[in-house]
Design a protein that fits this description.
Elements: E1 3-7, H1 14-24, E2 27-32, E3 44-48, H2 55-61, E4 69-71, H3 75-83, E5 87-89, E6 95-96, H4 101-117, H5 131-150
Helix pairs in contact: 1-5, 2-3, 3-4
């Protein structure tokens, strides 16, 4: 049965995802290192993992599989989830796929190298999360959940 996994630390669309999952009657796992207000929704399981690098990621990657949907901005986690057969979205609605995950990993590594090579620490902090990002996410999540439930 399809489940929705949320990499919840720094995820701006937890409430939106909960509404969509509830409408579909799906179980949702909100995985974090803590500090989040737990949902009272019986379909939502709040999973608190021990602190440490990538512990939440390992929990999600170890449980998701074909027919599941994962929401994360973490590219290495996305790669593991795709490998497990899950459908993966960023919180702005962009989809990670087998076709684009290699390029995403390479770009992530390149940017990390560029940041490390910049002795002054200059560089942009990225663009902010907008209403249109939220809207795109909701549309994309709806499509992905329908496709996952249909077995596409």
């Amino acid at each position: 049965m399809t489940a929705l996994y949320i990499d919840a630390d720094a995820c701006p669309v937890k409430q939106e995802a909960e509404r969509v999952a509830t409408r579909h009657g799906l179980r949702m796992f909100v995985v974090s290192n803590g500090g989040l207000r737990p949902s009272q929704n019986p379909l939502v399981e709040n999973v608190i993992v021990s602190e440490g690098a990538d512990v939440a990621d390992m929990w999600i990657a170890g449980r998701c599989g074909a027919g599941d949907v994962v929401v994360t901005g973490d590219i290495p986690l996305a790669a593991k989830c795709i490998e497990a057969g899950a459908r993966v979205l960023r919180h702005n609605g962009e989809r990670f796929t087998e076709a684009n995950i290699g390029q995403q990993l390479a770009m992530r590594d390149l940017m990390a190298d560029l940041r490390a090579a910049n002795p002054l620490g200059a560089g942009g902090s990225g663009k902010g999360f907008t209403k249109s990002d939220r809207s795109r996410f909701l549309d994309a999540l709806e499509r992905e959940l329908r496709a996952a439930k249909a077995g596409c």
